[in-house]
Amino acid sequence: MIGRFITACALALTLPVSALAKDDTSFAQLRKEEAVTVNPEKAYFLFRVPDAANSIFFLRVPSKADLAAYETAKRAEYDRKKRKMPYEEFVFDWEEVPNLFEVRPKRKYVEIGDKLRVQIVEAPAGEYVVYGVGYNGYMYQCNCMGTVGFVAEPGKVTDLGTYLVSNAWDPSPHPELKDESGLGRVARMDFGMFAFGIRPVEGEAFVPAQLAGSEIVPAPYRAIGPWVDRRRIHANRLAAIPGVLEYREGIPFDPVTGDELRLSLHN
C-alpha cells in the first residue's frame, strides 16, 4: 500500500503539492483469510472489481490538523536555508501523513464471488475522492476531468459498489462505460487510456462472510469538478453516474444542484 500526502484547502480540494511516502499501515487492504473486527475509530471500504488489472487510487481530504502540520513543516524547511523562489512556489515533499492510497485488486482480494474480486479496506475515517487508476504504486491516470467523493464514517463499512475499468479504445462490456469506451485510435496513441466508472450498490450485492453482522451503508457519492495533476500520464474523467455526476458537452455538472463543476483542484 503506497501513500502520498496531498494538501487541500477549504474542502474544495485545492492540491498544491504531493509527496511520495513509504507503505502506510493506516490504510490496509485485507486478505481473504483475515478476520474483520470493526474498529469504532476506523472506516471500512467494501467494493467489487470484475477486472483486476488496474489499481484504484483514493485521496483522503486532509483535516485542518493535517494542513496545519504540513504548513509548519513546509515553513521550517523553507526557512532552513536561503531560497530564491517565494514561499508560495516552494515545492515541499512531506511523508508524515500520507493521504493518497492505492488498492491493488490483482494482488490482494477477500473473496471472489460472482466472478468479482471483492475488496475490504480498513482506512482512516474521513472524506475521500475517487482519484484515478494505475499500476503497482504508480498513479497512471487521474479522474481530473470529473469524479466523485464520499464520506467514510468511523465504525461503519461503506459499500462503494462495483468499480469498472476497461480499455478506452475498445467497446466495453459494461453499459456504464459506453460513453467512455470504443474511442478507437485516439485513446491508444503512445500510451493507452482507460475508461473508469462506478456501479453504485443496489439491492442484495455480494458481501463477504467476514462482514456478517457489520453495519454496511451505501457510499454517499457526490460530484467533484476538474483539477490539474501533472504527475499522471493521462487525465480522464470518471463515467457519469445517474443522479450523482453528469456531463453536458464534456463539462461536469452536479445533477443534485444543477451546478457546473468548475476547476476545484490544482497541483
From TrEMBL:
* Residues annotated as signal peptide: 1-21
Q: Which domain of life is it from?
A: Bacteria
Mind listing the UniProt keywords for this protein, alphabetically?
Signal
The name on file for this protein is DUF4893 domain-containing protein
